[in-house]
Amino acid sequence: MAEEILKNFFFIERGYLNGNHFLLRGEQPVLVDTGYIGDFARTQALLEGLGADLSSVRLIVNTHTHCDHVGGNAIIQEMSGCEVALHPVGRHFIESGDDWSTWWRYYAQEARFFKCAHSIRDGDTVSIGPYDFKVIHTPGHAADGIVLYHPPSGTLLSSDTLWEKDMAVITVRIEGSTALFAHEESLDKISSLDVKRVFPGHGSPFSDCKAAIGEARKRLGVYFRERERIGQDLLKRIVIYTLLMHPGREEELFHDQLMAAPWFRETVDLYFNSEYALKYREIMEYLTLKRLILRKGGTLYSTVKP
Ligand SMILES: [Fe+2]
């Protein structure tokens, strides 16, 4: 689904495996985020369907360096020689080859490094064609996270800092023990903006920014009071994410893959006394009951939109 939110500036809604992304259509297109690498053919089809020539892309602006937001960068850079702009923290991750801080290695995700030409800092203005967006650094979910705000139209590209009815995972193991506080401060920054419409990193656009911030604050409150909820939410979402990366995987193989990745065992170590088999069983039962995971002849699928 695509929506022209400003003249020639399109919002492209994806699902959970791929972050939503944006296109400024023109002779030298500009992109904001580029989906997951394994789904690049679909990303390309969607962008070309809106009239973008990927070999002419001038600039990619990324809201952070997670795999579902930078997946198309290396390929599009090869096609076009385009430049990439990132917050200095993300630029440092990419230039130093730090695939741990980007979460890629921790969550066993597929991603490729690329070249970054520009640093965009808190308070900077980034021009996307005729539209000047204010850069706001919003760490918490991701140390290099930014949101982009266009004051004349009250448009906020909120990435994974703010969703409407849900909250992006907090990976304390990578983001550090202050991640919840950082995310709370990031919400404070957004709450002072005059926002008419929010375009999140996952999910549909929405208008009530204050209500969404309220929901996110409530979730943070739960996390502050009940530490294990952070782990519980993380296990549920990343199991789904792993399945979306490898649909139709035989369950035994899927189980072994989860146990081999750092994140599953570490999350269970941190929050659930290293009870790997018990947590695996609980999470799979829950997700199957909710019909978020389907079993077909020994193989697993997710019903979540990729
Ligand atoms: Fe993210």
Q: Cα-atom Rg, whole angstroms? A: 19 Å
Compute the number of helices: 11
General form: globular
Report the average pLDDT across residues: 97
CATH-level-2 architecture of the largest domain:
4-Layer Sandwich
- The CATH topology of the largest domain corresponds to Metallo-beta-lactamase, Chain A
Strand content: 15-25%
Give the spatial strand order of the biggest sheet. 1-2-3-4-5-6-7
Low-pLDDT runs of 5+ residues are none
Order of helices and strands: EEEEHEHHEHEEEEEHHEHHEHHHEE
> What hetero molecules are in the model?
fe (ii) ion
Describe the largest sheet: 7 strands, mixed
What's the helical proportion of residues? Answer: 25-40%
User: What structural class is derived from the secondary structure elements?
Assistant: alpha/beta
Report on the architecture of this protein.
This protein has 306 residues and is an alpha/beta fold. The protein is built from eleven helices and 15 strands. It folds into two domains: 2-224, Metallo-beta-lactamase, Chain A; 235-302, no CATH class. The strands form three sheets. It has a seven-stranded mixed sheet. It has a five-stranded mixed sheet with strand order 8-9-10-11-12. The chain has a three-stranded antiparallel sheet with strand order 13-15-14. α1 (40-49) links the parallel β4 (30-32) and β5. α6 runs antiparallel to α7, α7 (209-225) packs across α8 (227-245) and α8 (227-245) packs antiparallel against α10. The longest helix is centred in the last third of the chain and has 19 residues, at 227-245. Bound molecules: fe (ii) ion. Residues 64, 66, 141-142, 160, 168 line the site of fe (ii) ion (FE2).
